[in-house]
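queue> pop job 88
queue> type: inverse folding (structure -> sequence)
queue> payload:
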């Protein structure tokens, strides 16, 4: 069961990566900096991945308390988010190539936070039964 869930969680993560990157470039185009822009893009991606994981990855464990579940997802995944953001920030701060192509930092951060986010989502967020 866990390998299938992890595969679905990872596939949702690819969609989250696309949302994260597209949002980042959109807010950079509006004048945001690399760090503020990433906070905005992370929140957008986290919301999309919560909704998709709720529907596809943890369907049988989602709850009827949607707002509470979303808040728990953001709280639990903030730990993985710190790993994700720290990886991104370290790379854009130290590697000029990544600063010029921030999607590389987004990708590295996403991979760094994957295991943490999956584990916490499974154990703390999606705990109901259908």
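queue> result:
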């Amino acid at each position: 069961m866990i390998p299938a869930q992890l595969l679905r969680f990872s596939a949702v993560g690819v969609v989250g990566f696309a949302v994260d990157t597209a949002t980042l470039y959109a807010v950079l185009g509006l004048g945001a900096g690399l760090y503020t822009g990433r906070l905005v893009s992370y929140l957008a991606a986290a919301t999309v991945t919560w909704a998709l994981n709720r529907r596809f990855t943890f369907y049988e464990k989602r709850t009827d308390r949607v707002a509470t579940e979303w808040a728990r997802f953001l709280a639990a995944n903030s730990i993985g988010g710190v790993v994700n953001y720290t990886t991104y920030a370290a790379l854009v701060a130290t590697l000029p190539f990544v600063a010029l192509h921030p999607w590389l930092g987004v990708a590295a951060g996403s991979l760094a936070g994957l295991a943490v986010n999956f584990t916490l989502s499974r154990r703390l967020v999606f705990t109901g039964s259908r």
